[in-house]
Design a protein that fits this description.
The chain is mostly helical. It has ten helices and no strands.
Length: 277
């Protein structure tokens, strides 16, 4: 009997291999399902009384106003670097005049929503995960439940809604400051004609491009806040567990933003094909 247990048959090995291969995708599906359930709870509890406007405004201040400086700094140098690289590349073909349109379309469609969301995830998302994780490990969330206060309504819903609202606003700020930095480098440092720069921006940039970036940023904001709140809400194991949850929140938010960016772009270009004037 002991010899049979020490030497499992081929079927036991096959079952073990199948189980090892099957467990990761099942874990991913389980995690996605848990996030969807949390999102449904957020939607349901957002329309139930009491409506805590003060908590919502505090989260808008934390996510939006608190991220203004870092978003402005990142957007300025992203626009400057992209303009510098574009001028260097287009100058080989004598096409410096197309720098403005290239930078404008790239910023509004991709760079602004992605970079703004990543900055928010690194700053506000990490803060959400840490704060909720600390509340979970110190049993403050359990205390809310004992006082008949729904934790999802009080802690999660305001953060998700505030991030969903503020991310498009910060994305528009990213667009404006990024274009200002691109203009400064292209016109003042690289000698591109300022009138041509502004005219090409006006001519080639379409409202569809701006709408695409804003729609993406809303989805990114909702996703990163939901992931951060989930990780903090389910943290365990004291300070170490809070740190692990925060790390997972930031990494998962970055990966989710980039994965969603591809699928949202594909869906948008299918539904709203770009038609240039």
């Amino acid at each position: 009997m002991a010899e049979a247990e020490a030497n499992p048959g081929p079927w036991s090995r096959i079952v073990g291999v199948v189980d090892a291969l099957w467990r990761p995708p099942i874990g991913v599906l389980d995690l996605v399902g848990a996030h969807i359930l949390l999102l449904l709870q957020v939607i349901v509890w957002s329309f139930r009384r009491p409506f805590r406007a003060r908590v919502f405004l505090e989260q808008m201040d934390f996510v939006g106003v608190g991220s203004l400086l870092i978003v402005a700094l990142v957007s300025l140098f992203v626009g400057m670097v992209f303009s510098l690289q574009s001028v260097s590349a287009f100058r080989q073909f004598g096409a410096e005049s197309y720098v403005a349109s290239t930078v404008a379309i790239a910023l509004t469609r991709e760079l602004a929503p992605v970079f703004a969301s990543i900055v928010i995830a690194a700053r506000a998302g990490a803060g959400m995960a840490t704060e909720l994780g600390a509340m979970r490990t110190t049993e403050q969330i359990d205390a809310l439940s004992t006082m008949a206060v729904n934790p999802v309504q009080y802690l999660v819903a305001p953060r998700v809604i505030a991030t969903t609202v503020m991310t498009p606003i910060l994305t528009m700020l990213f667009n404006m400051i990024g274009m200002a930095g691109a203009y400064f480098v292209a016109v003042n440092l690289q000698g591109v004609d300022g009138g041509v720069f502004l005219e090409n921006t006006r001519w080639f940039l379409d409202p569809n491009d701006v709408a695409q970036g804003l729609a993406k940023s809303m989805v990114f904001g909702a996703s990163l806040s939901l992931i951060s709140c989930y990780q903090g809400f389910n943290a365990s194991g004291g300070a170490k567990g809070v740190g692990i949850g925060t790390t997972r929140a930031v990494v998962a938010s970055f990966v989710t933003i980039l994965v969603l960016d591809y699928f949202l772009t594909d869906i948008w270009l299918t539904l709203f094909p770009t038609m240039r004037r």
